[in-house]
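Thread amino acids onto this structure.
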């Protein structure tokens, strides 16, 4: 592949050090002006995916679908939304690219007309046997319109010989592996499904009122709060829920397995006001900060969070250590994702668009910087330099998660292992590279303590924690996974499919 072909695909910002989540999903059934309600739900899940969004609605006669690059407000904030997407049922999706490229053809929900009627599917997660299945389907004559792993599920549903669409859906689930939370809309049902280990979250809610039940599926409880819905329960690992005019039916098509929810939902991805698998994200993050202070104390003058995700942990660290908590870094919330940074010199200044120093707090102080995690270190070193330039006398960096040493293959856009700083350097070497006076991480045991889960079981861990331990919860099938590479790029996919 030549350089002109490569330049046709958007590159990840080389200075963006944050891990990016796979997606957010949301669906409603029997709701007036369903598209408007889904738009609100997607707005609450915008943090889970900011590259693209889409929606499919059904009015009893036909499906209407829209998919857009960009934010939810830009795509679905217009007054004519319910005219464009009429219906009493709808599903929506916010997306980061994890498998496949950034093109509009990969935006979800994905829709297909089947013999039994239309079906729209939104997928949060990654399938670890994606390429294996895709190779098989293409060899059997399937024609793919995208490079997303989610389209594999549609093909599997379409090829199933089961009579009922729900049975076709379950038949497809039996063939996929990895981490997923799915919402699907058919002519007669809203369906939700969660992977057998519960790696990716999914919740069931209801909108109170007179008449028939009005149910909601969402990635996080904060989306229920956005629309005034009542939280009913988490969808269980391996559960398939079928919502129709008669209510909610539950199926458990998989053998019982010990659940292993994703720890990164608590470290970084979920909103702090969400409750995930029965645990307050805000409460977990504060306990992470408390334990971090116990494990990595330091003589200092002030505790400063790297906003926004470092805030709860910094509060916990300050309370446990007795040090004052101050907003020494101010987050800019109005930075457009399309801002052009044409040269390295301008990119060096880009961090100040998102984070600005509060000199009144930092000057002459010994500062403890609290961040949620450290991935490659590129953002961290710029923030440290900014804090020093604001007059800090010392900078002590503390990570509220353990060192990230292994890539993810279940929906988190995380760099390959050779780009993970903790996989390549010791703590002292990292401290030198990050230009800090000291560096400390929360231990794996400390993270489990913060989850109030008891000590980690080394044989059967209670959570998905492979990014810290290398203990992957499922078998890994595809070639790029076995080689320790993370497939996030349409160019890689095209090459592998052609090979």
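Threaded sequence (499 positions):
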């Amino acid at each position: 592949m030549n350089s002109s072909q490569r330049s046709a695909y958007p590159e990840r910002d080389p200075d963006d050090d944050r891990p990016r989540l796979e997606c957010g999903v949301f669906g409603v059934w029997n709701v007036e002006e369903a598209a408007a309600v889904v738009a609100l739900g997607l707005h609450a899940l915008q943090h889970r995916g900011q590259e693209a969004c889409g929606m499919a609605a059904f009015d009893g006669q036909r499906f209407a679908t829209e998919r857009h690059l960009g934010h939810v407000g830009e795509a679905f904030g217009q007054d004519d939304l319910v005219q464009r997407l009429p219906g009493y049922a709808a599903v929506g999706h916010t997306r980061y690219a994890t498998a496949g490229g950034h093109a509009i053809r990969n935006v979800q929900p994905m829709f297909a007309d089947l013999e039994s009627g239309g079906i729209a599917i939104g997928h949060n997660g990654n399938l670890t046997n994606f390429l294996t299945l895709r190779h098989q389907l293409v060899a059997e004559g399937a024609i793919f319109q995208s490079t997303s792993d989610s389209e594999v599920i549609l093909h599997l549903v379409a090829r199933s010989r089961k009579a009922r669409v729900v049975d076709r859906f379950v038949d497809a689930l039996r063939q996929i592996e990895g981490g997923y939370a799915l919402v699907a809309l058919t002519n007669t049902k809203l369906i939700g499904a969660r992977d057998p280990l519960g790696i990716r979250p999914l919740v069931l809610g209801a909108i109170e009122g007179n008449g028939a039940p009005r149910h909601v599926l969402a990635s996080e409880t904060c989306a229920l709060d956005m629309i005034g819905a009542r939280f009913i329960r988490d969808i269980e690992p391996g559960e398939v829920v079928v919502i129709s005019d008669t209510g909610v039916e539950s199926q458990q098509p998989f053998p019982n397995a010990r659940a292993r929810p994703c720890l990164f939902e608590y470290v970084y991805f979920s909103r702090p006001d969400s409750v995930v698998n029965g645990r307050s994200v805000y409460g977990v993050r504060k306990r992470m900060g408390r334990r971090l202070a116990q494990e990595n104390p330091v003589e200092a003058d002030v505790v400063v969070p790297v906003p926004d995700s470092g805030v709860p942990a910094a509060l916990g660290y300050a309370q446990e250590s007795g040090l004052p908590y101050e907003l020494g870094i101010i987050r800019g919330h109005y930075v457009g994702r399309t801002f052009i940074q044409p040269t390295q010199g301008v990119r060096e200044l880009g961090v100040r668009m998102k984070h600005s120093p509060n000199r009144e707090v930092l000057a002459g102080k010994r500062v403890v910087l609290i961040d949620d995690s450290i991935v490659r270190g590129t953002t961290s070193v710029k923030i440290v330099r900014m804090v020093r330039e604001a007059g800090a006398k010392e900078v002590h960096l503390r990570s509220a998660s353990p060192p990230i040493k292994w890539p993810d293959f279940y929906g988190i856009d995380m760099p390959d292992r050779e780009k993970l700083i903790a996989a390549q350097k010791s703590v002292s070497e990292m401290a030198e590279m990050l230009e800090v006076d000291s560096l400390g991480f929360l231990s794996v045991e400390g993270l489990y303590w913060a989850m109030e889960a008891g000590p980690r079981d080394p044989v059967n861990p209670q959570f998905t924690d492979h990014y810290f331990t290398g203990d992957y919860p499922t078998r890994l099938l595809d070639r790029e996974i076995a080689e320790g590479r993370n497939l996030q790029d349409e160019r890689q996919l095209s090459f592998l499919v052609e090979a």
